Amino acid sequence: MVHRKNRPCVFCALHYIGVCYLICGPWQPGQEKGRAMVKNLEDMQNFSKESVEMALKSFDAYAKNVQSIAQELSDYSKKSVDEGAKTMEKLFGAKSVDNAIEIQNAYLKSAYEGFVSQATKLSSLYVDMARETYKPFEMAIAKATGTK
Q1: Which is more confidently placed, 118 or 34?
Q2: Which long-range contacts (CB under 8 A, 24 or more apart) does 79-88 make?
Q3: Is 100 in contact with 91 (CB distance < 8 Å)?
């Protein structure tokens, strides 16, 4: 903000209170922006408050979803380790090589199916997390872009 006679600064707070007239000279077209900016201080504070509230809601949704994903991973890990231990017990008790191969093939098939099922479930949880985390910002973005 440079104060020069007959070239006043547009956003000068001194213009708003009327003190800058002696330094910058008379009001010129376009200086209403400076007054509007100072008048909009309350709007800016409200915008900041809304932004913080949106961020907190988003973080809360994120935290809840991360917790559910962690719980799902923990449950899957426990189940996987239990199934692996049971399979090892069966393998140690196998009477023949053919029986051991059958046990191992059954375990591999169930482990693969369980993994695919778990990956699908986790994928949907991550999509839900993205949706719920983004949801607080939807209204603000729609408002800014003029869409519903």
Answers
A1: 118
A2: 79/114, 80/111, 80/114, 83/107, 83/110, 83/111, 83/114, 84/111
A3: yes
Flag whether pLDDT at 16 surpasses 90.
no
Q: Per-residue pLDDT for 3 more than 50? A: no
DSSP assignment letter at 18: T
* Distance of alpha carbon 77 from alpha carbon 80, whole angstroms: 5
Provide DSSP, 75-121: HHHHHHHHHHHHHHHHHHT-SSHHHHHHHHHHHHHHHHHHHHHHHHH
**How far apart are the C-alpha atoms of 11 and 1, rounded to whole Å?**
8
Q: Which structure tokens are listed for 65?
A: 């979803």
CB 23 within 8 A of CB 3: yes
What distance in Å separates the CA atoms of residue 58 and residue 47, rounded to the nearest whole number?
16
